[in-house]
Amino acid sequence: MTENLPPCPECSSAYAYEMGVLLICPECGHEWSPASAEPAGDAAEDGVIRDSVGNVLADGDSVTVIKSLKVKGSPSGIKAGTKVRNIRLVQGVDGHDIDCKIDGFGAMQLKSSVVRKA
Predict the structure, then answer these.
(1) Distance between CA atoms of 6 and 27, rounded to whole angstroms?
(2) DSSP 3-state assignment of 98?
(3) Which residues are within 8 A (CB) of 87 and not within 5 positions of it... i.e. 6 or more apart?
(4) Which residues, listed in sequence order, are joined to residue 102 by a DSSP beta bridge?
(5) Cβ-contact 25, 16 below 8 angstroms
(6) Rounded distance, CA 16 to CA 47, Å?
């Protein structure tokens, strides 16, 4: 039955299961509705970039990182709750559509799926 279910949008786990009208990931605890995942894909095709909650992002916005991220070459990663100011939206590689500078890490690109508009 799980063969037809999409992977978790947060952690990409293939073990999502249905509970009522929601899909739930047992690994990270993320809950989402199957219908909510489809419009996000359509919006991305229209050129609109949305955060993890669905808010439309624009150049110059401030965002908050919603989950801890590993950074190559750094002993500590970016912690959840880190505020990032003055983002710039780009057509990045591999889904990285936010260009920004993070204190202590410098310039980098983030995915819009791991940030929330502040």
Answers:
(1) 14
(2) strand
(3) 57, 59, 60, 61, 62, 63, 98, 99, 100
(4) 106
(5) yes
(6) 28
In the chain, what percentage of residues exceed pLDDT 70?
87
Type of residue numbered 93: V
Residue corresponding to tokens 């990032």:
84
Q: Where are the beta strands (DSSP E) in the chain?
A: 17-19, 22-24, 31-32, 63-65, 83-84, 88-89, 96-102, 106-111, 115-117
Tokens (6 digits) for 33: 């509705």
Q: In terms of Cα–Cα distance, which of 64, 68, 70, 71 is closest to 79? A: 68
Please tell me the predicted confidence (pLDDT) of residue 41: 45
Contact between 3 and 13 (Cβ < 8 Å): no
In the predicted structure, residue 43 carries a pLDDT above the cut 60: no
What does the buried/exposed string (b/e) look like for 13-25 if buried means 16 or more CB atoms within 10 Å of the residue's CB?
A: eeebeeeeeebbb
Structure tokens at 113: 């799926």
Q: Which residue has the tokens 């669905």?
A: 54
